[in-house]
């Protein structure tokens, strides 16, 4: 028997081949099913990817704080005290208040920036009292990556007044009280019990609560709109009251929890400063200094009382107070640098009393690791 081989053209011309040929593509229903499956998979994977990215950002943020902790302890090894949170050398009424970060620049491997600073001039180059302070523009506009948390995606440089400044996501702990003045007014106000405040020089021996139970530095969410006019500031406040801090009418000082509620929550807002974390070089409540009065990421507004640019012998200067809590973009809490150099994530749910205990250096509170 002889078999005749058929060519491809002949084979494709059969009815069976025609039916197979018509099924080479997807039907609309099949395509929709495939797209639905892909959408479900993307929906499942996207949160995992975002979570992994945030974990990486949080790890970098923690590493930044550890580097700052090494710098602080290196400074302490040399000078036997931690740097001052706010140097109050008086220059033409503007205070000349350099903060702690400017003092540890050499320990942060930023010797060139440190050498460019004239500490006898103001950190604000557009100061109405000291126009010669423009000599410090190079330093104050320099972005220090070590002081920025990658989870906070705001601009690294903002305009405050007429000048540009580089910011910081890390604030210095003034304690569990309200004042940062070394000689507070009224005189019955307890003096600061944290690590960093006006002309502070805290040695390890003064941290009686222990290095492992005293916070040195906490996080903040940087303001992104700088310091606009008072009208624009109030507009910013109405739109986002947590994007900066409130200044009460007549710069009234904050001395008690009730005063904070009456003045900052229920009272009239004189102005709103969208400058939280805006100037790393400056020793200023809200910009580089916070306190442990309210728990992390508290939903109520931050607030500053007193004045920062008065003559140091006057009451407005001596009544310089704050209620600025720690904040972050991390879900559920903030990273805190302790005086022993370790970094720990502190949840928003921490009790106020424990948070206040971690903020004081000598309150002799009895705390355990399970408390936070």
- Proportion of beta-strand residues: 5-15%
Q: Strand count, sense and closure of the main sheet?
A: 5 strands, mixed
Net shape: globular
Q: Give the helix tally.
A: 10
Can you write the helix and strand succession as a string? HHHHHHEEEEHEHEEEHEEEH
Low-confidence stretches: 1-12
The helix fraction, in percent, is 25-40%
Number of strands: 11
In the residues, how many domains can be counted? 1
pLDDT averaged residue by residue? 84
Indicate the topology.
Layout: H1 8-12, H2 15-21, H3 28-79, H4 100-103, H5 111-116, H6 137-140, E1 157-160, E2 163-166, E3 170-173, E4 215-219, H7 230-239, E5 245-248, H8 257-265, E6 269-273, E7 289-290, E8 302-305, H9 315-318, E9 321-323, E10 333-338, E11 343-347, H10 352-359
Brief characterization of the structure:
The chain has 372 residues and is of the alpha+beta class. It has ten helices and eleven strands. It has one domain.
Which descriptors would you attach to this protein?
single chain; alpha+beta; 5-stranded mixed beta sheet
Tell me what the structure shows.
This protein is an alpha+beta fold. It has one domain (47-371). It contains ten helices and eleven strands. It has helices at residues 8-12, 15-21, 28-79, 100-103, 111-116, 137-140, 230-239, 257-265, 315-318, 352-359; strands spanning 157-160, 163-166, 170-173, 215-219, 245-248, 269-273, 289-290, 302-305, 321-323, 333-338, 343-347. The strands form three sheets. A five-stranded mixed beta sheet has the order 7-3-4-10-11. The longest helix has 52 residues, at 28-79. It is globular, with a radius of gyration of 28 Å.
